[in-house]
Write a structure and sequence with these properties.
Elements: E1 3-4, E2 13-14, E3 20-23, E4 28-31, E5 34-37, E6 43-44, H1 47-51, E7 57-60, H2 77-81, E8 161-164, E9 169-172, E10 175-178, E11 184-185, H3 188-192, E12 198-201, E13 216-217, E14 219-220, H4 223-228, E15 238-245, E16 249-255, E17 265-270, E18 273-279, E19 284-291, E20 302-305, E21 309-315
Parallel strand pairs: 13-19, 14-15
Antiparallel strand pairs: 1-2, 3-7, 4-5, 5-6, 8-12, 9-10, 10-11, 15-16, 16-21, 17-18, 18-19, 20-21
C-alpha cells in the first residue's frame, strides 16, 4: 500500500517502510524576515528559497508527524510583579489660568515600508513533453504539492488539474497566508494545508528544462578597489578575493554570494592551475583558470562552498611562502603567513 511521508522536507510516497528518508526533524523558524529550520543553520528571505533548503537529517519514512512544536514562552509571576508602574501624564498649565493645556501634537511621517523580496518566476509555465518526469517529483507551483507518482497514467495528462496559489507567501505578526487569498492561520502546518485558489490544466513538474540565459559575467577586482571606494560606488560586476597561508597550506577565499552548489565546478587541473566555474542563483557567473604562484598537491587540495564565498585549501608542494596567490599578479613586499614555515 502506497503511503505518504509526513516528515518536513520529504513528502514522498513510499511502499517500503525501510526506505531512506531525508527530512528536517525540527520546526520552522521565522524571525525578522528570515526563514529557516531550527534543526539547521541556513536562513533565507523568500518563501521559495525556504522550501528549497536541503534537508539535514537521514532516517526512515513515517506517517506520524513527530516534529516538536515551537516553544512558547509563558509569562511568570516575577515578570508580572517586576513590571514598572504606569506613569500618570502631567498636565501643563500656563500663567493665565490653571486649566491644563495638552501638548502640541506634531504629525509623524509614516516610515516607508520596504517591499518583500520577490522570488524569481519559474523558467516556464508548462512542462516540455519531451522531458521524462522523474518519480516522486513534486509540482513546482506553490501550494499544489502533487507528486508525479500519484498520477495513474503519465503518458496522458489531459485530465490533470493543478490547484495552486499564484501569489506570494505572507507572514505578518504571527499570522500566515497567501497574498492571493484571504485566509490566515497561525500554525505553519495549517498554512501548508491552505487549499489553492487558482486552477490550471496539467501540473508543472520539470518545466521547459532550459536554464535562464543572459548570465552576468563577473571579473576580479583588486583589494584596493574595495578599500578605496565606498559601497555605493563599487561596480556590481566585480568581486574580491584574499588569502593567507601556513607552512603547508594556502587558504584562498573568493567572496561571491549565492553560489549554485549543484552547478559549481572546481577542478584542480595540475600542480600550478585551478579551474573555477561559479554560477550563482541570481544569474551571475565567475569563470577562470587560476594560475597559482607555487606548486600544490592537487590530490590533497580541497574546497568548500559557503553562503558568501568559495574557500580553497591548497596543499603546498614545498614549504616556500607565497607573496601572491596568482602567478600573473604583481608581487608585494609582505607575505601573510600563519604558523611556522616548513623547510624548503
Amino acid at each position: 500500500m502506497t503511503q505518504k511521508c509526513v516528515h518536513k522536507g520529504c513528502g514522498k510516497s513510499f511502499t517500503d517502510s525501510e526506505e531512506e528518508c531525508v527530512y528536517h526533524p525540527g520546526p520552522p523558524e521565522f524571525h525578522e524576515g528570515q526563514k529557516g529550520w531550527k534543526c539547521c543553520k541556513p536562513r533565507v528571505l523568500t518563501f521559495d528559497e525556504f522550501l528549497s533548503i536541503p534537508p539535514c537529517t537521514t532516517g526512515k519514512h513515517s506517517t506520524i508527524d513527530d516534529t516538536p512544536k515551537p516553544e512558547q514562552v509563558q509569562p511568570t509571576e516575577e515578570d508580572s510583579t517586576s513590571a514598572p508602574p504606569a506613569v500618570k501624564p502631567i498636565s501643563r498649565s500656563t500663567n493665565r489660568d490653571s486649566e491644563s493645556v495638552p501638548a502640541s501634537r506634531v504629525p509623524i511621517a509614516a516610515q516607508p515600508v520596504a517591499p518583500n523580496p520577490q522570488a524569481p518566476a519559474p523558467e516556464s509555465d508548462s512542462d516540455d513533453l519531451s522531458i521524462p518526469i522523474p518519480s516522486n517529483t513534486t509540482c513546482r507551483r506553490r501550494g499544489c504539492n502533487t507528486s508525479s507518482s500519484s498520477i495513474a497514467d503519465a503518458s496522458s495528462r489531459e485530465n490533470e488539474e493543478c490547484v495552486y496559489h499564484p501569489g506570494q507567501a505572507l507572514f505578518h505578526e504571527g499570522t500566515k497566508g497567501w497574498t492571493c487569498c484571504k485566509r490566515r492561520v497561525l500554525e505553519f502546518d495549517e498554512f501548508m494545508k491552505i487549499e489553492g485558489c487558482a486552477q490550471k490544466k496539467k501540473h508543472l513538474f520539470v518545466g521547459s528544462g532550459k536554464k535562464a540565459s543572459g548570465e552576468e559575467a563577473l571579473s576580479e577586482a583588486p583589494i584596493a578597489t574595495f578599500l578605496g571606494a565606498s559601497k555605493a560606488k563599487r561596480k556590481p560586476n566585480l568581486y574580491r578575493n584574499d588569502f593567507y597561508q601556513t607552512g603547508t597550506t594556502v587558504i584562498a577565499s573568493f567572496y561571491l554570494k549565492k553560489i549554485d552548489k549543484a552547478r559549481a565546478l572546481v577542478e584542480f587541473k595540475s600542480s600550478t592551475s585551478v579551474s573555477l566555474d561559479l554560477p550563482t542563483t541570481d544569474h551571475k557567473r565567475y569563470k577562470t583558470d587560476l594560475p597559482l604562484f607555487g606548486q600544490i598537491k592537487a590530490d590533497r587540495s580541497t574546497f568548500k562552498i559557503m553562503g558568501t564565498k568559495l574557500e580553497l585549501t591548497l596543499a603546498k608542494e614545498d614549504g616556500l611562502g607565497w607573496p601572491v596567490l596568482r602567478s600573473d599578479e604583481n608581487r608585494g613586499s609582505n607575505i601573510i603567513q600563519v604558523g611556522k614555515a616548513g623547510r624548503a
